[in-house]
Design brief:
This protein is mainly alpha-helical. 62% of the residues lie in helices and 5% in strands. Helix 7 runs parallel beside helix 19 and helix 14 packs across helix 15. The structure holds arginine.
């Protein structure tokens, strides 16, 4: 019997069905169904014969899903109904006992929590691979100078290792965000029933233990309403993807002929269909472009959850595509970034030449005057005046005459001034903790190495 006298409109069926995308939850759905059947029998809610029949049917269903021979029916609405239908076809009437003391509301929340837990764990491992690649690259380019930029204008020189390690710290923070997201999946929703609990003396802790949850969700209403762990995963992914977009953007710039700081390996670039000379940094460009898509998934799920009355609402079915696409996209991005960094060839000469424009030492000249008792704000003006004379007359700072220097400030000692304008001096004077002087970068490299997690 059915409550309905009319069949579903086929268009409603298409709108309502989630099978096309929630199929990938099947391993979790099978795992939780096994745990649930065992618990029902242990609590004498079903007989042990029924349990064994259910477990045998679940094994058969799993085998079909693994082999790709599982026959999805056109009216299977979602993976939960498809599996239960097939269990019942295989086990007969006893299949109908599987859903005792369970609702799709606590069932789907459980599957999604298990999926998110795996995805977060996977992201941390992918980050481990990328941070290891970055630290290796930093080690190989420890004392290679390049300009550091602000506003994409040459600002102050740094060592390449220092620059690459900046990404390591960003990614290590991302890793912590994924660990947090994973921790938010630790409470088992199953057993909450539709929303109020169930009419049977279930043992939720047994199910939690079998499925690897540290505890059970303490409130049945919250258990079926909660998708915070998905939001937490998406938020971690959004920040991480934004970081990767900055790495992608720099690789695009740096691999251009104009910069010429790096050559990306052939494995991560493509040719043009019309211009034979082209080697395009598509992977780096896509790293740059994928981030907003992940941020949009985060924002979309906030939109879905916003203002939703408790408890389950069908709106929440929309969590999955945002989650799945984010997992797949981020996975690709992290693996691509790792591959690109492992294959990148940096060009010492080009980077060094760009960092030897002596205007880049302007701050160092100002600080030299500070050390001779001139207040910093005055020094800033004095050096700005010198930069202007040099730029207007097409000379470097080192080419300014003694008279010009003395004219700018009596405190400016021409010999000391020229000594400051050698590249290694600007770099090696940045001795503050976290700065770019080689000794500091070496310390940072050691710290980064010990903060890495074994791949
Ligand atoms: N496919 C649904 C989802 O993904 C499963 C839960 C359905 N529950 C319900 N009460 N209609 O959210």
């Amino acid at each position: 019997m059915s409550r309905f006298s009319e069949p579903q409109d086929p268009i409603f069926h298409r709108l309502n069905a989630s099978l096309a995308f929630d199929q990938r939850l099947w391993p979790h759905d099978v795992a939780q169904s096994r745990a649930h059947a065992r618990m029902l029998a242990a609590q004498s809610i079903i007989g042990t014969d029924d349990r064994d029949a259910l477990l045998a049917a679940l094994d058969a269903v799993e085998a079909e899903l693994v082999a790709g021979t599982f026959d999805f029916a056109t009216d299977d609405e979602d993976i939960h109904m498809a599996i239960e239908r097939r269990v019942t076809e295989i086990a007969g009437r006893v299949g109908g006992t599987l859903h005792t003391a369970r609702s799709r509301n606590d069932q789907v929340a459980t599957d999604v929590a298990l999926f998110t837990r795996d995805a977060a764990g996977h992201a941390t491992r992918a980050i481990d691979a990328l941070t290891a690649a970055l630290v290796d690259a930093a080690e190989r380019h420890l004392d290679w100078p390049l300009p550091g930029y602000t506003h994409l204008q040459r600002a102050q020189p740094v060592y390449l290792a220092h620059h690459l390690l900046a990404y390591v710290w960003m990614l290590l923070r991302d890793r912590e965000r994924f660990v947090f997201a994973e921790s938010q999946t630790a409470a088992l929703p199953l057993g909450a029933g539709a929303l109020a609990g169930v009419n049977f003396a279930t043992d939720r802790n047994a199910v939690a233990a079998e499925l690897g949850f540290a505890q059970i969700a303490p409130n049945s209403i919250d258990a079926v309403s909660n998708r915070d762990f998905v939001l937490d995963y998406l938020a971690a992914a959004a920040t991480c993807a934004t970081h990767l977009s900055r790495l992608g953007a720099e690789l695009v710039l740096w691999s251009s002929e104009e910069f010429g700081f790096v050559t990306l390996s052939d494995a991560w670039t493509s040719g043009s269909s019309i211009m034979p000379q082209k080697k395009n940094p598509d992977a780096a460009e896509l790293l740059r472009a994928k981030a907003p898509r992940i941020v949009a998934h985060l924002s979309a799920l906030h939109g879905v959850m916003h203002g939703l009355p408790l408890t389950y609402n069908k709106d929440m079915q929309e969590d999955k595509e945002h989650l799945f696409d984010t997992v797949d996209t981020l996975d690709l991005c992290l693996a691509s970034a790792t591959g690109m960094i492992r294959g990148a060839r940096f060009h010492r000469e080009r980077m060094s030449a760009a960092a030897s424009d002596d205007l880049i030492a302007a701050t160092d000249v100002a600080d030299h005057l500070v050390k001779r008792g001139v207040p910093f704000r005055e020094c800033h003006g004095i050096v700005a005046g010198l930069v202007r004379i040099a730029v207007d007359s097409g000379r470097t700072l080192a080419e300014l005459t003694d008279d010009e220097l003395r004219g700018a400030s009596e405190q400016l000692e021409p010999e000391a001034f020229r000594a400051l304008l050698s590249q290694s001096a600007w770099l090696e004077s940045k001795v503050s903790a976290g700065g770019t002087a080689l000794a500091r970068v070496r310390e940072q490299l050691d710290a980064a190495r010990s903060a890495l997690h074994p791949v």
